[in-house]
Write a structure and sequence with these properties.
The protein is α+β, with helices and mostly antiparallel strands. It has one domain: Gcn5-related N-acetyltransferase (GNAT) (Aminopeptidase), CATH 3.40.630. The protein has six helices and eight strands, in the order E-E-H-H-H-E-E-E-H-E-H-E-E-H. Strands 1-2-3-4-5 form a five-stranded antiparallel beta sheet, with helices on both faces. Strand 4 and strand 5 form a beta hairpin. The radius of gyration is 15 Å and the shape is globular. The termini are far apart. The mean pLDDT is about 90.
Length: about 170
């Protein structure tokens, strides 16, 4: 990786968001190897070790190419990987935020804290004119988090997901 490969993207009060490391494979499998944590992710399929390794590799390639992407969410106080997230690039569409946390960290307020960080980073640092998120209709927690961060539901072409969009003030003006 180049010497300017980022060590981190941003920090919030309790969380550090950084590119994936090869050593994150076990944590990623532990998080996405639980049915409750993947129920709204890619059709609910559990993540295998091989898929985790590929995800980490592709994520690091995207960070090298674009300077940002998806990565690990680390609890600052413990140094443990507690989730994953970042910006995905669906083909032919603007960037989308994605995120998820290990089930033992649900209810701690990490979701709203991390999404607020993604929004601030996306608008203030990356200058993205809009952020998007697709959410399963039954994922009420994520819908609430997105709405609290100014995302508005728009028409979606996919019946199994809702599209939420947040435009930067500069893009709307």
């Amino acid at each position: 990786m180049p010497s300017d490969f980022p060590n981190e993207f941003f920090r919030t009060e309790r969380l550090l968001f950084r590119p994936f490391l090869t050593e994150d494979e076990d944590a990623l499998v532990a998080i996405l190897g639980v049915p409750e944590t993947v129920q709204y992710v890619d059709g609910g399929e559990l993540l295998s070790r091989e898929q985790a390794a590929l995800w980490i590799e592709k994520s690091r390639e995207n960070v090298q190419r674009f300077g940002w992407g998806t990565g690990a969410v680390v609890e600052i106080g413990t140094g443990n990987v507690v989730g994953w997230g970042g910006y995905a690039r669906p083909e032919g569409a603007p960037e989308e935020i994605i995120y998820g946390f290990a089930i033992e960290h649900w209810g701690k307020g990490f979701g709203p804290e991390f999404v607020a960080g993604l929004v601030a980073y996306g608008t203030d640092v990356l200058n993205l004119p809009e952020l998007r998120a697709t959410v399963h209709p039954d994922n009420a927690r994520s819908v609430k988090i997105l709405e609290q961060q100014g995302f508005v539901r728009e028409e979606s072409r996919h019946p199994d997901s809702h599209l939420f969009v947040r435009r930067s003030p500069a893009a709307e003006g």
